[in-house]
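Homework help board

Subject: predicted structure for assignment chain

Our instructor gave us this sequence and asked us to write out the predicted structure in C-alpha cell form, then describe one feature. I got the C-alpha cells but I'm not sure how to describe them. Can anyone check?
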Amino acid sequence: MKKIKIHYGWWIVLFGGILTGFSTTMVNTLNSLYVIPITSEFSFTRSEYIMTSTLTAIAAIFGAPIIGRYMNKNNMKRIQVVLLFIMTLSYISFSIANKLWQFYLASVIIGLIYMSLGMIPISIIITNWFDKKQGFAMSLVLAGIGIGGAVLSPITSTLIINYGWKMTRVYIGISYLFISLPIVAFILKPAPEDIGLKPYGWDKSNEEVQKKIENKTKVPMEKIKKSTYYRLFLVGVIVSGIICNGGMQHMGPFVTDNHDQVIASLIISLYSFSAIFGKLLLGYLYDRFGNAVSMLFGGGMFTLAYILMAFFPKNLALMTMAAVIYGIGNSVGSVNINLVTYGIFGRENYGKILSVIKSIQQVGMASGPILFSLLFEVSHDYKLPFTLSIALAILLSYSWIKSYKDAKIESGVS
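My C-alpha cell output:
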C-alpha cells in the first residue's frame, strides 16, 4: 500500500492553529470570565476593569506594526521566543496586582505583543505555504481560536471556582508557555523554501492557474490607499473590531446578569465551539462561492445573534441559539478580514499591509468594550449596545462586499 505523505503546510496549519488559538483566547475570550471575580474583590466598576481590554487593543494598534516592521523570516523565531516569555510573565502578573494601574500596565504590555505571537505571523506564513485552498487553510488556523475558547473557558471557569482567579492566571500562563514554546522554536517554518518545499497547490505547468493563484494586483499600493473602496474597507475593519470585541468582552457579565456564572461559562464555550465550525464554513464559502456569499452569510448570522441577545436575554433556549449563531458571525472578524485584505492587496503586498490592517481593527476592538460599557451604564442593561450592533453588522457586510468587488474590478483580477 502506498504511503500517503502529508504536505508540511498542513502541519503548519495544525500547530499554527494551536498557537493562535491559545494566545487569542487568553487575551480576548477568557477575559470576560475574570470581570466579576476581580471587580468584586477590588470594588472596581465593570467599566474600570473592562478598560483592560480597551488598553490591550489600543496597545496592539502600535505594537503590531512596530514589531512587524522588524520581524522577517530570518529572525521571526528569535523574536517570538522572547515575546513568549514576556507574554507569560505579563499574563501571570495579574495575580499579584492589587491596584487598577497595575492591571492596566500589564494589559498594555500584553497588547503590544500578543498579535505578533499568533494572528499576524501565522496569517503571513499561511499565504506563503498555500497556493490553493488558502481560504480553507486560513479558516482552519483561525478555528483554533474557537477550539481554544471551547476548551479553555470551562477549564478556566472551574479553576476560578475551585482555586480562585489569581491561581488560575498562573496555571493558564504557565500552560501557555509550555505548549507554545516548542511550536515556535521547532515546528513553524516561515516559508516552504526554508526546508526545500513548494507551496501546497504549486503548479508550474499551468500558467493561467498560477496567475490566478498568485493574485498579484495590477494596482500599486499607493493608489489603493487613495481609493474610495479602500476607505470603505477600513470603515468595515473598524466596525468589525467594535462588534466582535464589544460583544465578546461583555458576554460573561451579560449572561451572568440574566442567568449565572456557570451558564455564562457554558455559553462562552458553546459560541467558541460554534466559531470552529463558523470559521471553516466561511472559508469554504469563500473558496467555493466568493467573498459576497461568505460575507452575506457571516454578516447575517452576526445580525441575527445580536437580535436574539438584545430582545430575548432571559430565554435560555434562545440564548443557546444565539451563542451558536454568534460564534459563526463573529468569525467574520478573523477569517474574512484576512481574505478580503489578501483579495485587495495581493500576495506581494499582503505581508506588508496585514499588520497595518490588524492595527486599524484594534481601534474598533479598543472602542467596542468601552462603548458597550458606557451604553450599559446609561441604560442599565445590554439592549442598547446590542441593538446598535445590529445596524453595525449590516454596515460591515455591505462595506466589505462593496470594497472587495470594486478592488477586483480596478485590479483586473477576477
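Reply (TA_rk): Your C-alpha cells look well-formed. For the description, you could write something like this. The mean pLDDT is 86. That's the kind of observation they're looking for.
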